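## Example pair
The file below holds two records. Each record gives the amino-acid sequence first, followed by its C-alpha cell line.
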Amino acid sequence: MTQGESSTAVADDTITISPGPRFRAAMVLAILADALQIVVFPLFVEGALSPVDDILDFGIAAVLVHLLGWHWEFLPAFVAELVPGVDLVPFWTMAVANVYRKSKPIAVAEDESRSKHPALRDPQHF
C-alpha cells in the first residue's frame, strides 16, 4: 500500500431525491395525470366512474414508485384518486411535491454531517 491509499473504504449508501431528471419526470407526470383527470376525462369519458380513470391511477402509482421509490404519501393519493368526485383534486401533484419537500431536510442534514465529520484518515500515515 502506498502512502496515499487507505485500507478502509467509506461507502455512501444514502438515497436522496434531488431535483434531477427523476424528480422532474415524476412531477411532470403527476401534473399531466391530474390535468387529464380534471379537464379531459370528464369531457369524453364517463367521468369519475370511468375504468380508464382507474387504469390511469394504477399506472401513475406504479411509475411514481418506480421513479421515486415507495413513499407513504402515494397511498392516500392513490385511494383518494379512486373515489368518484374526489379525483378532481390534484392529489398526484401534491403527493410528489410532499415527497420532495420531506426529502430536502434529510439531504441538508446529511450534507451538514458530512462537512462536520470529514473522512477518517489512516492513523499510521499522518
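Second record, same layout:
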Amino acid sequence: MEAAVVRGDVAYVDHVSAPDLTFTHGDGWTTGGEPLLVDDRKSFLKRVENKQYNLRDLDSVKVEMHGDIAITYGRYVAQNRTGEPGRIWFSVWFERVYEKRNGEWYFVSHRTVHGPTYGLDRKSVSDK
C-alpha cells in the first residue's frame, strides 16, 4: 500500500481502504492534546491523488492477529514532495488496524503513536 500511496494509485488505495478509515497524524493526542490532523477515507485519498510523498518506507513492523482483526505496529520513514526545509524527511511510529470483511482485508485505522520526528536524510534511510 505504501508504494501505491507514493505513486498516486488512488484506485488501489481506495480498494484496500475501509469506507470508515481514519488516519490520525501526529502524536499530540498521547499527551492529551490534539493530533496534527485526522483524515477520513476521502481526505486520505486526496493526499494519494496529490502525490504528497516521494517516499514512504516501512520498517520494524510487527503483526498481532485476532481472528479477522490484524493490528500492526512499526515505523515509516517518509519524504514529502514539498515543505519547509528540515521538515521534508520525517519518521513516525504507528499502530494500524486491518479487518477482514466479506473475505477481503481492509485498512481501517492508522494512529501515529510517536512523531513525526523531522530531519532525516537519504543516508538515514539507506542505513536502516
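Notes on the second record: The first helix runs from residue 2 to 7. The chain has a mean pLDDT of 93.
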